[in-house]
Specification:
Number of strands: 4
Protein name: Dynein light chain
Structural class: alpha+beta
Family: Belongs to the dynein light chain family.
InterPro entries: DLC_sf, Dynein_light_chain_typ-1/2
Radius of gyration: 16 Å
Keywords: Cytoplasm, Cytoskeleton, Dynein, Microtubule, Motor protein
Low-confidence stretches: none
Number of helices: 3
Largest sheet: 4 strands, antiparallel
Mean pLDDT: 87
Strand order of the largest sheet: 1-3-4-2
Order of helices and strands: HEHHEEE
Subcellular location: Cytoplasm, Cytoskeleton
Helix content: 40-55%
Length: 123
């Protein structure tokens, strides 16, 4: 059983690497499960392909909104997404909910945080 799980994990990682190569993605950092990484990479590639003609630059805000909405829908709130050609970040994220990658000159940071009600302390 352990051997089968290890083999399955290796196959997932090989498939992820193949997806990254096919889409010309550079995976910089992630602690997401492989299937979620696959979803993020493929969705980004699909959004870029369906965006404006190749002669114009994609709109980073539209990409970020679409990625966030898709991940909120599939994996629950609260996902945050930053897309651009240059940005710095320092974020706290939920375990298993972080990916940072680049596609050509565009970088994508997608991460999840837990939603908690903010209350005022008792006087």
């Amino acid at each position: 059983m352990e051997n089968r799980k290890a083999r399955s994990r290796e196959e997932e990682e090989v498939n992820l690497a193949a997806t990254a190569i096919t889409l010309n993605v550079r995976l910089r950092s992630s602690d997401m499960p492989v299937h979620m990484q696959q979803r993020a990479l493929r969705l980004t590639g699909s959004l870029l392909d369906s965006a404006a003609p190749k002669t114009s630059r994609p709109n980073p805000s539209h990409l970020a909104r679409a990625l966030k909405k898709e991940f909120d829908l599939l994996y629950g709130p609260a996902w945050h997404c930053v897309v651009g050609t240059g940005f710095g970040s320092f974020v706290t994220h939920s375990p298993g909910g972080f990916i940072y990658f680049s596609l050509d000159s565009l970088s994508v940071l997608l991460f999840k945080t837990e939603v908690q009600l903010v209350t005022e302390p008792d006087p």
